[in-house]
Amino acid sequence: MDVSSRKEPFRYVMNQPLECWIEVPISSSGPGAGKLTEAVLLDLSRSGCKVRTPLNLRFTAGDTKLVIHLQLNEEKLQLVGSVRWGWMFGLGQYQYGVKLKLNEDEEDRLHRELDIWTASLNVEGL
């Protein structure tokens, strides 16, 4: 029996970017603090995600906290994390890598939502 050496959870790439909202917590002093800003989710795993938005966070790696609001299925999710990297992506767009900081319940809920979401994609593809 082969044992996988994979240590990182699988990353789900959104073939069609998924609309979401990002929120910089009110306790932050950066741009957009306390406001919801439109974004698109490009990929997602239980440990992180990639988002694109018109909001220029002017972040310092690891110091910029974000809450990502999204809905894969029926349940609305709020994923808390911190920006790990970012760069300008085209004119007036910024792309960020976010490391998620989820407790066990949030991780389980995200895993369930991802399972349902991928199952619905397989059904649609038939």
Shape: globular
Helix content: 10-25%
Q: Strand order of the main beta sheet, please?
A: 1-2-3-6-5-4
Estimate the strand proportion.
Answer: 35-45%
Largest sheet: 6 strands, antiparallel, barrel
Structural class label: alpha+beta
DSSP helix count? 1
Order of helices and strands: EEEEEEH
Mean pLDDT: 84
Counted beta strands: 6
End-to-end distance: 31 Å
CA-atom Rg in angstroms = 15 Å
List the uncertain runs: none
Question: What's the topology here?
Answer:
Layout: E1 12-23, E2 36-44, E3 48-53, E4 65-71, E5 76-88, E6 94-100, H1 104-124
Antiparallel strand pairs: 1-2, 1-4, 2-3, 3-6, 4-5, 5-6
Would you give an account of this structure?
The chain is α+β, with helices and mostly antiparallel strands. Strands 1-2-3-6-5-4 form a six-stranded antiparallel barrel. It has one helix at 104-124; strands at 12-23, 36-44, 48-53, 65-71, 76-88, 94-100. The mean pLDDT is 84. Strand 4 and strand 5 (76-88) form a beta hairpin. Pfam families: PilZ. It comes from Paenibacillus pseudetheri. Residues 22-112 form the PilZ domain. This is PilZ domain-containing protein. InterPro entries: PilZ_domain.
